[in-house]
Design goal:
The chain is α/β, with parallel strands linked by helices. It is built from six helices and seven strands. Helix 1 packs across helix 6. The longest helix is centred in the first third of the chain and has 20 residues. It is globular and about 45 Å long.
């Protein structure tokens, strides 16, 4: 699923989550919520009639736990078009209230720009830019220089449910999920629409 860019359609901001298979639970927090939030963020952008300069592409990876083969397959599928990927955002921390975005980016100029974008989310308390690591599925893109971010939540109960029979859809509060969709949509849209690339 993608929303074609109006000026630079060949340049891409990837957003997504992954689909896991477990013999317990439903995988609602890990990571169906991330996959659905990415789709909803793209839908919201389109519903609002917004068309950013660049393309926003939703990717649903798979097999994150046993070799990241989905992330590797996506990287292989784009080949030398990797240079057209301007950012990748993954949600893989459950669907509790969002805090902001974690990133391994260390250079001050792109970090300053991310902080500026994140301030748009202060009203929903999701405006943090958190130093850290990238996500597993976007790792193959990060290795080749694509700026990556992970949507981060408060994770108050995430590890109570993670990989257990308790990881079921009833643990997802609709109002918190909607805040994640909003944060995803804002960050993706601005990265796709700003005149210059993040780096």
């Amino acid at each position: 699923m993608k929303s074609q860019g109006r000026e630079k359609p060949e340049e891409v901001v990837v957003i997504g989550g992954h689909l896991d298979s477990w013999d317990v639970g439903q995988g609602a927090q890990d990571d169906a919520s991330g996959a659905i939030a990415a789709m909803q963020a793209a839908y919201l952008i389109r519903k609002l009639g917004l068309q950013p300069r660049r393309t926003i592409r939703v990717v649903l990876w798979t097999d994150e736990e046993k070799g990241v083969t989905g992330g590797k397959a996506y990287r292989a599928s784009i080949g030398d078009q990797i240079g057209n990927h301007v950012a990748a955002i993954e949600m893989d921390g459950g669907a509790e209230r969002p805090r902001g975005f974690e990133t391994p980016i260390k250079e001050e100029a792109p970090l300053a720009r991310l902080r500026e974008i994140a301030r748009l989310l202060d009203g929903i308390k999701a405006g943090e830019i958190i130093p850290g690591e990238g996500e597993a599925d976007t790792g193959p893109l990060e290795t080749d220089g694509v700026p990556v971010l992970g949507l981060r939540t408060v994770m108050k109960h995430y590890f109570d449910w993670h990989h257990t029979e308790a990881d079921t859809v009833d643990k997802i509060k609709p109002e918190e999920f909607q805040l994640n969709v909003a944060a995803f949509a804002v960050m993706a849209y601005v990265l796709a629409d700003m005149p210059e690339r993040l780096r």
